[in-house]
Amino acid sequence: MSEQIEQAIARKYDAGFVSEVESDTFAVGLDESVIRRISAMKNEPEWMLEWRLKAYRSWLKMDEPDWAHVDYPKIDFQSISYYSAPKSMKDKPKSLDEVDPELLRTYEKLGIPLHEQEMLAGVAVDAVFDSVSVVTTFRAKLEEAGVIFCPISEAIQKYPDLVKKYLGTVVPQRDNYFAALNSAVFTDGSFVYIPKGTRCPMELSTYFRINELNTGQFERTLIVAEEGSYVSYLEGCTAPQRDENQLHAAVVELVAMDDSEIKYSTVQNWYPGDENGKGGIYNFVTKRGLAETNAKISWTQVETGSAITWKYPSCILKGDNSVGEFYSVALTRGRQQADTGTKMIHMGKNTRSTIISKGISAGHSSNAYRGLVRMGPNADGARNFTECDSLLIGDKCGAHTFPYIESRNPSAIVEHEATTSKVSDDQLFLCRQRGLDPEKAVSMIVNGFCKEVFKELPMEFAVEAGKLLEISLEGSVG
Amino acid sequence: MMLSIKDLHASIDGKEILKGLNLDIKPGEVHAIMGPNGAGKSTLGYVLSGRDGYEADSGTAQFNGADLFDLEVEERAQAGLFLAFQYPVEIPGVSNMEFMKESVNAIREKRGDDPLSASEFLKKAKEACKQVDLPLAFLKRGVNEGFSGGEKKRNEIMQMILLEPNLCILDESDSGLDVDALQVVANGVNSQRDGKRSFIVVTHYQRLLDYIEPDYVHILADGKIVKSGDASLAKEVEKTGYAWLGAKAEEADA
């Protein structure tokens, strides 16, 4: 029966097409002149360039981390191009009518129509293609509410004071190797600002697409929620099927002021490479949020793609009574490797955090949960609950759990539960005896395993995530 | 003939368990299969339903004219073969409702029927729930997740009612049940007797047959049917036990 499970999880990658778009792409290689050129392309002010150069000089002195439970050849940072943009974006199209139809078609094929009338009601989208934002929808409607949602390159021009005030405050330039690299060469990403007391009237989302060969994508997202505000944000990502590995090193910073709430969801479907581990995206990402008094930050992620994932969306619970949540589904198959989890840093009193992690490993893949819960000396009455479940499909994959707990406050409570289970032959036999084919059966069992996390996703995306697992598990059963 | 088994031999891990079993079942008939532990009663259910590791070594089984052993597990189910498990397994996070709706519609699709809508299915599911005396909340709970032994058995019968199979194999559906639960399971089964649907009731004890009256009783010992009769045979077994079979089975072996 295990053979049938193996077949059922063989995967087809639907987003693997290449768009025929003429692009301006930098020659491969990285030095200060490349950073100056990126900054010049974006017409940035001097302070921004200085900020980048400072990051670059730090990066040069740093070493690539090797503690993650992943294995890959050393990245040659001189063989990557750090900027690529469709030629048609040079003249900065003012409306959708001026955008290259091929770009619009790309997003349509991915199920993300960019014409506002065709879109899911209530979702505004920023579409980032390689190094530039193609279009951001519903901006007028959001502006009415005082919400700023625009490409970060534009925010640097239009709202320099806001960007200057918050950029790098949660993830400093030299935070870690990949964050430092990102700080030096980031090209685009989204900027969100929710004014005091405002509930963002729509879901905000950004779709990242890597298209060009041999380029890296280095996006930077900054979300600031002022006092008493609320925003729900979702990112999605895909890339063409290529034999070469491509680097994606993003930084996301969330700032949640007093009494505010930020809900950040990710549906990550980067190209994972083929069944032999050829090609695929290296997804090395730093995501962190800072929660002030009574604020809440909630990370939900569904990770099904990438050859290698290295990602720990974290919460710094600085203010008293602040809340951090992390809900994660990470599915690996083929030769995929994931080392993912979270950090909950409790600083304030009565801070609370919840971690629910579901790892599913199939094929020859390796799936690790790595989580840190730190209770600081002032975190009186702080609480954490961690549940970490692994599901194994077949007998050639691996699941690992690396929990780190540091408590410097005797009144803090930390709970950790972990389980490992298998899609058993008994379960599969029950499903098939009830008339379900093996593919449907495995996909149903996996979806059931993930239910606790899916229910945290915004409605529209919960359906999408469920489908993604279904597609991911689709295969040819002979 | 609904099911016709001829000279069935089957081994598990190289050990022969079924050693030339013959059985004919006509539509609407209820056949009880009794026998001591290790006689091959559960093996028969698994071989017929196609469980991995329970393939027939030789012999044939015709099911409504089709060769059963040519079909995949799900194809046998789609053709109307249902197995009520002795130890139903849990599927956490998948609701009973979702599971049964997918199953019912997968089978309907094979029969060329339109799938049931959510509301049509819910109506049927509620009725089935009532029939086996399970609270409606069980529809929303994960398949067998945290169910007691008796609840799991009743849940199996509920699934049988919803799937409307042609042939139901009940694998020790009475084990571990108190008298009230036994009554509920038996009522569920009896409600499905319509003169066309056939049943194989596998049991160690005669007790269940007080509630589900069989047309035929077969004694399975050492991989063969050693004695067949009507309902009175079950009563006889209750009195004398299976000890007399041991000798007989050994004789048959020699």
Q: What do these coordinates show?
A:
The complex is a heterodimer of chains A (478) and B (254). Chain A has one domain. The two termini of chain A are 13 Å apart. Chain A has helices at 2-8, 32-41, 46-60, 101-109, 139-144, 152-158, 160-166, 177-185, 425-433, 438-454, 459-473, and strands spanning 23-25, 84-86, 123-129, 132-136, 148-151, 190-194, 203-209, 220-225, 230-238, 245-248, 251-256, 261-268, 280-291, 296-303, 308-311, 314-317, 323-332, 337-346, 352-361, 366-375, 383-392, 398-407, 413-422. Helix content of chain A is 23%, strand content 35%. Residues 474-478 of chain A have low confidence and may be disordered. Chain B is α/β, with parallel strands linked by helices and 254 residues long. Chain B has one domain: 3-Layer(aba) Sandwich (Rossmann fold), CATH 3.40.50.300. Chain B has 9 helices and 12 strands. In chain B, the strands form 3 sheets. Chain B has a 6-stranded mixed beta sheet with strand order 6-9-10-3-11-12, sandwiched between helices. Chain B has a 4-stranded antiparallel beta sheet with strand order 2-1-4-5, with helices on one face. In chain B, strands 7-8 form a two-stranded antiparallel sheet. Chain B is globular, with a radius of gyration of 18 Å. The two termini of chain B are 33 Å apart. Classes of the chains: A alpha/beta (478), B alpha/beta (254). Chain A binds chain B through residues 1, 424-427, 429-438, 440, 444-445, 447-452, and chain B through 49, 51-52, 72-74, 76-78, 82-83, 85, 88-94, 98-100, 102-103, 106-107, 110, 142-143, 159, 163. Chain A: InterPro entries: Fe-S_cluster_assembly_SufBD, SUF_FeS_clus_asmbl_SufB, SUF_FeS_clus_asmbl_SufBD_core, SUF_FeS_clus_asmbl_SufBD_sf, SufBD_N. Chain A: Residues 144-199 form the SUF system FeS cluster assembly SufBD N-terminal domain. Chain A: Residues 208-449 form the SUF system FeS cluster assembly SufBD core domain.
